[in-house]
Amino acid sequence: MDNTTLTIIWTVIGIILFPIILKNKAPYGRHTTKKWGKTISNKAGWIIMELPALLICPLFYFTNTTNLPSLNTFFVGLWIIHYINRTIIFPFRIKTKGKKMPLAIALSAIFFNTINGVINGYFLSVTDYSLSNSPLIIAGFFIFFIGLVLNIHSDNKLISLRENTQVNNYTIPKGGLFNKISCPNYFGELTEWFGFAIMTFNIGSLSFFVWTFINLVPRALSHHNWYKINFENYPKNRKAIIPYIL
Ligand code: NDP
Q1: pTM of the model
Q2: Which of 17, 25, 28, 30 to mutate to test the pocket of ligand 1 (most atoms within 8 A of CB)?
């Protein structure tokens, strides 16, 4: 079986799992429960579960290509920027001291990030890019960049809401896109990988965008419902993840 077929199968598995993920909240952060067995530190969990994404795609790429000054290398560079933030900066900024996440969540994320890293590293090393695609590349880069800024800015805003010691203290985020949706950080992440898929135009990055949708839309809906249940005064006009739509 060739790698394109395998990637399509991997994406179809995600689509089949979507209704199951929709019904079951991923048990970390505000949705954490003790039912999922052994737990590990939240901060350590973030580092170990994102590390495969940071390492595997670039490792795969740099060991499989000799053409370093290329658009491909630029795309891998953007991947590295995203994952340096997610793996190294984000976990040291979150205020979740003493908070735990189920080991099962970290293991399933390691599994996902390993496969996703191999797929994207592979397709970024074999796809031939030329500047004749530049309208797509420029548009995709623009969308990716807006998503990256929105994701980091919104994560920062959420992190700043919490007093240092109270890990179960949540407040209603306000301002900017938070006035329109409950989870601008997820909307930013979705926008990022949508832009990346347009820019890199291969089945691997398209698969990653589909999987990001599958992971983040259910979680945004869970967060949105959680806010509505826990805050009587939660603004009624807010959507969960896509302004005015969802
Ligand atoms: P959340 O929005 O649940 O939380 C982000 C941080 O802010 C956490 O430390 C959380 O604390 C804190 N926080 C959130 N809301 C509030 C609030 N109202 N008051 C006080 N503190 C708050 O994001 P996730 O932890 O699920 O995800 C983090 C990042 O990882 C996001 O940028 C997301 O896009 C990305 N991600 C990407 C995925 C993908 O498939 N590509 C999958 C999952 C995440 P606490 O943890 O204690 O709730």
Answers
A1: 0.97
A2: 30
